[in-house]
Amino acid sequence: MPPKRPVGADAFPKPVETPAPPSPDPSELYAALDLGTNSCRMLVAQPKGSQFHVVDSFSKSVQLGRGLESSGQLSRASMARTIQALRICTKKLSKHNVRRMRLVATEACRRAKNGATFMEMIRRETGLAMEIIEPEEEARLAVVSCAPLVSTRTDQLLVVDIGGGSTELVWIDLTRVPTLERPRAIMRLRQGFAPTADPNSAPFPAARVVDWISVPLGVATLREQFNDVDDDSARFALMSWFFEENLSNFAPYADEQTREGFQIVGTSGTVTTVAASHLGLRRYDRNKVDGLRMTSDQINKVIEDYLHLGPDGRRNDPRIGRDRHTLIMSGAAILQALLRLWPTDRLTVADRGLREGMLYSQMSADGVLEDGPF
To answer: Core-most of 16, 135, 240, 307, by most CB within 10 Å?
Structure first.
């Protein structure tokens, strides 16, 4: 007796549809962690309109790059200090149930022979999957973080990020962008510095990155270069000259820039400390510092005051702080070199950096930021 065909044998199989990934919940938390040469810093934030609201934060001086200039490797003590700080970050991420995060390491881990090995150690000891990013991405994230501070009257913009191990400079031409769209044009640079096929395509012309450079000198590495110079003023002058020498390959270096329509946005502990000193703040207040506009003359006056104080005076100056007095003059040397080349009446102080850039980039990519003015 022939076998019977099962019922439905001639029917086509029902296709299995892959469910679309769920849209991000606007109430969901995001995290960004920046492991630099000197500090480990993290923000946990929630989207709020076209900005974000910080829910939790962490900042610790771990001095990861201490001794790197001489040995070429991260020391055991530096790695141990950093692991302890990252364990605190892990607890905060778990406490807030953060799923969307970006955790990056920069110059110290890029340069160290054992940088990649350290990333594995971090994964093993803390469970955090960190990545070492390239200089261009570090510069791009710094630029994105400063977008809300860009003036609509700015034609030429220089974004400066003075880090512990490197300094990133990005020169941007905004002359083709409508004035009201200029801050948003900076935000769109999160997709890359390379020009699009049609830079004038809709909806608005793009900001043009004239040139960018990552100088392997930051507040910690520049200080180490001249640790053997005893005279305070001489060391400062040498550091400033040496940093300027490393800018010779930066395209705008050869061009004189008029002050009108030119803005510098400086993002670093150096710039915020100089601003706090200018304001006479004995206790740091981010609300008074972030977005503050200063002139070259005002900044130079603060730096002259630092030199007059000397090492002992700076150590005891409450405006500088105990955790920064050893690094402030190397940072000031970088800042003065830039202002010597490109004096400006509009240096905007930015108490923000890679962490904010990562948060903006993640939230923009997920579409959870509202399309409105910054």
So the answer is: 240
Spatial distance between the Cα atoms of 163 and 365, rounded to a whole number of angstroms: 26
142 shares its domain with 128:
no
Is residue 345 located within the same domain as residue 284? yes
Please choose, from the candidates 78, 153, 79, the residue with its C-alpha nearest in 3D space to the C-alpha of residue 117.
79
- Residue 300 main-chain phi, psi, to 5 deg: -60, -35
User: At how many degrees (to 10) do helices 269-279 and 296-315 cross?
Assistant: 90
The answer to whether residue 87 sits within a structural domain is yes
Closest CA to 333 of 260, 268, 276: 268
CATH code of the domain in which 118 resides: 3.30.420.40
Q: Contact, 186 vs 147, CB < 8 A? A: yes
Per the structure, the count of domains in the chain is: 2
Is residue 7 a part of any domain in this protein? Answer: no
Measured CA distances, 110 to 129, 140, 156, 278 (Å)? 16, 17, 30, 34
**What is the pairing mode between strands 293-294 and 30-35?**
unpaired
Q: Where are the alpha helices (DSSP H) in the chain?
A: 68-71, 76-95, 107-111, 115-126, 135-145, 182-187, 219-225, 232-245, 269-279, 286-289, 296-315, 328-341, 354-366
Range of the domain at 286: 137-355
Structure confidence by residue, pLDDT tens digits, 314-365 = 999 988 877 788 899 999 999 999 999 999 988 999 999 899 999 999 998 8
Going by C-alpha positions, the residue among 309, 357, 312, 304 that lies closest to residue 335 is 304
pTM of the predicted model, to two decimals?
Answer: 0.84
